[in-house]
């Protein structure tokens, strides 16, 4: 299932938040890159990453009243660190999959 | 190389041959080469795509999308799911592995034969050795040249040496390796002698036809005799291959049993006895550049603790994957990435005694049920501890064990003793992958204990052989590619001999 325009915004913001300061940023991947990923990735990874995008985008609204991509860098880091260090394994996996995708995307962006 | 590309098959295609081989990985390529050498007309059907040197991707994202099944995210079903890394390309896993070569250890074969004496006749040691010698020659297997190995490998050697552990350059099928550090994404220089470039190419040179981008749905059986395969091409068409003499299945440990099950082979042993080598990695930081993504991807190994079920290797990784392994997230991760060149990356593979199972799920896809038990966790803990000790001995300033609930960073080697003595026993604390898979169509003279006989024929169907790692009675504790190829060659010679002898089922 293709990313909606809103999901793309959230996804790209999340990847750039997870691994900021890259040039080019992880968010600079093209639709073609994401289509290729969507065609190749295991369904669990596709679903898991999409779930992570939704969860990490909107979880901050509970505490800060705003989604992740509307937070400043300090608060974004705080949210992501909270997720990455959570006592529940399932919550930590959200951060794990985002870090994985951010790293791969950053590497892809460098050579594309 | 490619006779028929499934991406271009929109309607129906029919082929006929003597033997159809399902899968072009180490087992399938080896089988095709031997069968073609024996003068048989062979068709190889491969689900994946060719991956020529000119098209090798420059990064892990693109490479994994093209050559790794599910982008290496296919997970086992367990309390803590484990990624199962499988290749999906012409040449199979040989295209994406570290090119590491090991002969089958004699003690492993001894154990197999002690368990089932008939294996000594069907799988004689002398035959395995002879085929291994031929494979070593053909694939140009040789120790990694220290001149191109790089610091990641050199530091492992130094650490092992300081601790008195037996170690050595890894023997690899990588002729003329230039140390680009990209074995796991495919060799950009054409140095890695993967099976598509060697044995499969040899088979094609003798008339073997390769069908790619085509997934075998089932083996056709006529009154208990394998007569061919039916496959689905990526282009939407159906491909049928009629085989006059029989079918060789080499679709890998996960897919071979599921294919047989899907084809109606009613064997309760199918999918049982899944074994693997769970692997974990350790990063260590030094006061010098290491640049673990350069040099030979896996050029040095430590074998001094094999009797404890542990094998250590340097493990160069793509920078994107390395970034995901570093601690932190957000700006903390970015800071680590900025000093990424100071990290070494090494791995440990455990010869776990854990058994799992593979079966067809309700979607038709394979399900692998396999998790870490306490013994495997304790072995992993020991492995990580030893990696850390070697890193400190080589001059590391800190090590990152990567174990949830334990120290993120260790600067005092005594903490590694604590990890080994009292590891977290929750499997979810451990970041593990499985890459070496075995056993789901186990070889046994007793049909109640295995799927194939000692001569590789299926117990419950004629004209059907299995020639991949799924026939291995156990895991081996070492990198399996060379032994898979050698054993598949032994099996393929059995196939050729039966055909030549004109057994009743040949037409």
Largest sheet of chain B: 8 strands, mixed
What percentage of amino acids of chain A are in beta strands?
A: under 5%
Give helix % range of chain A.
over 70%
Average pLDDT level of chain B: 96
Instruction: Tell me the Rg of chain A in angstroms.
Output: 13 Å
- Gyration radius of chain B, rounded: 22 Å
Q: How far from one another are the termini of chain B?
A: 28 Å
How many beta-strand runs of chain A? 0
| Continuous helix count of chain A | 6
- Helical content of chain B, roughly? 25-40%
Report how far apart the termini of chain A are.
24 Å
Most extensive interface, chain pair and sizes: A-B, 40 and 33 residues
Question: What is the average per-residue confidence, as pLDDT of chain A, rounded to a whole number?
Answer: 94
Helix segment tally of chain B: 14
Report the uncertain regions of chain B.
none
Strand content of chain B: 15-25%
Number of strands of chain B: 19
Order of helices and strands of chain A: HHHHHH
What structural category characterises the helix and strand content of chain A? Answer: mainly alpha
Structure notes:
The complex is a heterodimer of chains A (about 110) and B (about 500). Chain A has about 110 residues and is mostly helical. In chain A, about 70% of the residues lie in helices and about 0% in strands. Chain A has 6 helices and no strands. Chain A has helices at about 5-20, 30-40, 45-60, 60-65, 75-85, 90-110. In chain A, helix 5 crosses helix 6 (about 90-110). Chain A is globular, with a radius of gyration of 13 Å. The model of chain A has no long low-confidence stretch (mean pLDDT about 95). With about 500 residues, chain B is of the alpha/beta class. Chain B contains 14 helices and 19 strands. In chain B, helix 1 packs parallel to helix 14. Chain B is globular, with a radius of gyration of 22 Å. Chain B starts with a strand and ends in a 7-residue tail after the last helix. The interface between A and B is large, with 40 and 33 residues.
